[in-house]
Amino acid sequence: MGTQSVRQREHVSVGLVIAATLLAVGTIVFLWLVAVPWGPIVCPAIEPAPLNCQQPHRADSATVATWVVLGIYALTMLFALVAPIRRRSVVVVGVTLLAICPIAAYVFVAWVG
Questions:
Q1: CA dist., res. 65 & res. 92, Å (int)
Q2: Nearest to residue 66, comparing CAs of 36, 88, 111?
Q3: Residues spanned by the domain of 35
Q4: Within 10 A of 10 (CB to CB), how many other CB atoms are there?
Q5: Shortest CA distance to 106 belongs to which of 42, 49, 28?
Q6: What is the DSSP string of 42-81?
Q7: Residue 66's CB: how many other CB atoms inside 10 A?
Q8: Do 19 and 97 form a contact (C-beta atoms < 8 A)?
Q9: Burial (CB count within 10 angstroms: exposed 0-12, middle 13-18, buried 19+), residue 30
Q10: What is the distance between the alpha carbons of residues 113 and 105, in angstroms, rounded to a whole number?
Q11: Angle at 103 between CA 111 and CA 33, to 5 degrees
Q12: pLDDT at 48
């Protein structure tokens, strides 16, 4: 029985786990180093400025986006480590969502937020 659980754990794709980790960390770093300080490329010259042109509002939006990315990452790791053989497709979907997160999060923080 012990060797069977070891064999199941061997089927966890280390590449998927590494990819998910790098994508999650990269997205969060990208948000806080690019989207929050710079925001949208162009802001209209009106008073009051739109919310996405105000840095404190972008920081609030980035906090929400960070929690969403961390939630997706946590669920992906949970499925990758708990039942790796049966849940491989769920892990692939999680990694795919994490690959989409940098673009979606930037649009949310810098333009929509």
A1: 21
A2: 36
A3: 2-112
A4: 10
A5: 28
A6: ---S-SSPPGGGSHHHHHHHHHHHHHHHHHHHHHHHHHHH
A7: 17
A8: no
A9: middle
A10: 9
A11: 75
A12: 85
As a whole number of angstroms, the distance between CA 61 and CA 35 comes to 10
pTM across the whole model = 0.82
Average pLDDT of each block of 10 consecutive residues along the chain (113 residues)?
51 85 97 87 82 86 96 94 77 95 93 78
pLDDT given for residue 30 in this prediction: 95
Residue with token string 């790796």: 84
Q: How many domains does the chain have?
A: 1
In the block, tokens 């990819």 appear at 19
Could you count the other beta carbons within 10 Å of the beta carbon of residue 113? 21
Q: What are phi and psi of 88, to 5 degrees?
A: -55, -40
Amino acid (1-letter code) at residue 22: L
Output the pLDDT for position 4.
54
| Amino acid in position 1 | M
Task: Please give the structure tokens belonging to residue 79.
Answer: 């499925």
